[in-house]
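Q: Convert this sequence to structure tokens.
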Amino acid sequence: MTEDHILDAKDNDGDLDMEEIVLPSKYHEAVEKYTIEDEGKPQITKGIQEEGQIPGSNPNWLKEGRHFDLATDKTGNNGILYVSATPDTSIVNSNKEDRQAAVEDEKEDTKLYPLELTSSEDISPDRVKFLTGLFDDFEDLLKDSAFKAYLIDTHDFGVPSLIETEKKERTNKLRWLLTNLIKSLKELSSSVIKDDTEGTDSRAVKYEELINVLNLLHATKFSEPDESIILFQMWVNRADIQPDEQLISDMGNAPPGTLYENITFWSKYLKVMIFRGYFEQALTSIDESGYEIFQEKDPDLHTLVTNLKILLASYDPMKFSQNLKTFMEWKQRAVELRDKTINFDFKNVEIGSQVVDIVTSISGVDSALRENCSSWYEYFLVQYMFEMPSSNKIRNYVDKAQAAFSVDTVYSWETICLSIFSEQYLKAISALEVLDQSVSTYIAILLSASGLLESYSSVPLHGKNSKSAEEEIQTSIDQMIEDLALSYLSSKELFSTGTGILILTDDSKARKILSEMLPNYKIESNDDFEWCLSICAKLMLPTTAKQIYNTQGEILLDNGFEYEALCCFSEAGNTNKVVSAAWLIFENVLLNGNQMDNLLNEKVDKDEIESPILRQALSPLALLRNVLGTEGRSLPFERFMELIKFRYLPAHYKAILLLLLLPYFNTGTFSLDQLIRIIEILNIYEKQIQNDTRCAELSTQSYEVAISRKHVEAPKGPYDWRSIEKLPSDYKALILEIRRLIAFEISFKFLEETTKN
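A:
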């Protein structure tokens, strides 16, 4: 997209990112940049200029009472940009001629520019799968807004143990929801990264930031007692992958058994592995380094490394997370080893000092820990791992980490994580919403269900009629849920999910919203159709159901599914449409000799139309098919007369029906009585034409269309009017021709009678 295809502006409701607006190229005959900042008017930084419309020599064109306006379709991604003029008061007070001239000038200036709003919502198959999975997982919490008192509103059976059991089950449910959300996000992120061969997809970065935040939330508030150390390790290691690829490559390329002599191995690689909690990998690396050579060349260093291995092997993150006593016993051993290093005499002082630094750090010496970290979150982790893995110390560790290292103050996962550490959950939710509306909404639901937002209930609110803080928060979450549902309703792929959210939460606006949105839903299958009708039934929306029936009926009729279309109109109670559609089908059959919808043919021929409205509306079609379905010389004359004399038959159809009789003259088909009855029909038809000019016009048009389609359908036999080589030029000539043929046949019949006598 070129710069010329982008307009920057502001809509009447506030800021609008006009870079999301794409104008079709046919509306870009010429473009010139303007900067307009009229007070009270939307700011335009780039405007459309068409040849002959906005004078290129007059950059003040838009300032002369003209400005850009924007109107958008709230149910879709379409809109109109138009140049409009503000009435000049001097003109309003002027004479009639001047005002008329001003109106004409405004008409010349104003022109509509259709536009499309490029949706920022990711509706890729993987993303849709992720969002529908989220909805399924959170269904229990959404139903009747159960999240508002999920852990409090347990069933009171009178037995404390049962109450406690149910509360524990619900707590586990909340943990599962968060862990499954993280798992699903990881799968989505992996899918995006896999498809992003050029590395330009920003979604991957966004998803990774979300994972970083949720990993921390999991570690702080949704973990089991024995998981905290492992979860904090996962949080940091996912957010900042270490060791880096270059360091891993350097260590991997070293000859086997030679790493012991590489200072980088001890000063960087091994430290990163230990301070990130990769104890097993660190032990394997030490074993493969060839350090055993120190036993002869540097005994004290060998002893130190051996004891370090014992310490690392005995570090139990699961046990230490829930049992501080066992951790303190382990730490005591680390302190004792650290103290022993004072008396060690290393031959390789450089390597020895690095190993001593590792032991000093894991023994909990704060200065050593800080020196071996490069970020606040890394510093927090080593404090938690080696000083004391206690939840009571977390706040202190975070404060020290912030004081020691700078934090990215731009909206990022780091600032959101700090909000979580300080239990500023509303701030975290607000920041998450910038990253992903769906995830932030479900996290708000999760936090509310877990009771973590109850701390805000003590916040005083000012104002005589103000709600409590807790009510305000719940109202805000309700609004988030509603906004999320509405955003889904603009997408075909997520429409059902948005509908489900509105219904499950018992949103008071659900009936009104869906009554407006459901008729616009693009139905592509019977399942879609039945689903829409089931929603109407559930919410008691009979008027909306009728709209859907009518809309779908029109679509089906346009696509040749005539029977289903008629059924839709019938179900909608749209008698007028049933009748008009039935006559349209009748007309097509009359003109073409057949119809496309085999199902309707079958239903009519087998007399399987059950609806009284349809039976009545299709009765003329049934008679016509009976007449057209006869092959050979026989003509169901009584059926034909019943049809052409039908009280409600539009008179102009008679011109085409009379064509059906032409092939049967001079074949001995008609009796004298039948010929007389045909004359009566002609007389009635001629009177109708004389008394009704509209009937005459339509008769002319119908006959011309029928004649023009003569060669479209091949004649079915010698008794098909299409087999006649030369037909009367118009319906009047047709009537005269039939009268002539009748006169000839009557004369012939009298001659026969005379000859016999």
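The chain is about 60% helix and 5% strand.
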